[in-house]
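User: tokens in, sequence out, please.
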């Protein structure tokens, strides 16, 4: 599932590639991925409008679209809000897209310059929503702190997770507490910080939490620099794979030696029903 580094990579790519482009046509081959608009309304609202900004919030990719100038006072700017989930992604097609890709295209935005922006999703578990600015503000407001925001210092991070009696791994992945962290980077941050994923968050000391915040920010930053982690389906906006998989110390390494102490890593689904990989020797 694309997490913060993957969606950040896609958003940055798209901002460079499509900002200023005008949407000349919209087609929706798989309308079941749409939210808050039907196919006709989606097309009507967006056709003829320029893309002004592409950015990330949590695990969402957000495209800011101008409102029609004559309706600007009544009709706030639209936002296309893409939640890729497990197999979704946005890719820009300049005519060289792999021949197999169209089978998975759910929504296509034809651009006036001849390119096409596709939302593709093999399993169609992701969503593409159309929201007014005011609607998005409420939606975004229900999400937690951004872990890479400079305002997320030790005090803010501690207040965010320390009150929880849940396992710290679960608290890290609670999108209402901390936005954008999923299974891969929760595993990696906890390994880097030397903290047992099953520990109750409320038992962590201030020093533990400071170390964990630093570890989380470091692993997210490093993954963004490597353009994300590709195991199976994730591709960036150019259709290329991320390379952070080569730097993973915990996730996907069950039974392999811990890179810190040499003890074999343990894999379990007991913490939250998902794959949790940790070192029983140096995470406590």
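Assistant: Sequence out:
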């Amino acid at each position: 599932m694309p997490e913060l580094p993957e969606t950040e990579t896609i958003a940055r790519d798209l901002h460079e590639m499509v900002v200023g482009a005008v949407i000349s046509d919209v087609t929706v081959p798989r309308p079941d991925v749409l939210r808050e608009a039907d196919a006709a309304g989606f097309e009507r609202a967006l056709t003829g409008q320029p893309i002004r900004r592409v950015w990330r919030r949590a695990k969402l990719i957000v495209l800011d679209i101008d409102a029609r100038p004559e309706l600007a006072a009544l009709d706030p700017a639209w936002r296309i809000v893409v939640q890729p989930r497990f197999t979704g992604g946005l890719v820009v097609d300049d005519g060289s897209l792999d021949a197999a890709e169209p089978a998975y295209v759910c929504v296509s935005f034809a651009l006036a310059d001849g390119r096409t922006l596709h939302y593709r999703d093999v399993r169609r578990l992701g969503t593409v929503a159309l929201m007014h600015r005011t609607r998005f503000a409420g939606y975004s407001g229900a999400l937690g702190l951004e872990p890479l925001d400079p305002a997320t210092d030790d005090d803010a991070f501690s207040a965010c997770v320390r009150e929880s009696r849940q396992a710290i791994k679960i608290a890290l992945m609670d999108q209402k507490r901390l936005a954008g962290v999923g299974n891969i980077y929760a595993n990696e941050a906890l390994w880097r910080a030397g903290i047992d994923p099953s520990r109750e968050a409320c038992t962590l000391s201030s020093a533990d939490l400071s170390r964990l915040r630093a570890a989380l920010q470091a692993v997210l930053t490093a993954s963004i620099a490597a353009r994300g982690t590709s195991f199976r389906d994730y591709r960036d906006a150019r259709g290329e794979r991320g390379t952070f998989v080569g730097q993973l110390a915990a996730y996907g390494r069950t039974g392999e030696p811990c890179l810190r102490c040499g003890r074999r890593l343990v894999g379990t689904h007991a913490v939250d029903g998902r794959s949790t990989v940790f070192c029983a020797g140096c995470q406590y």
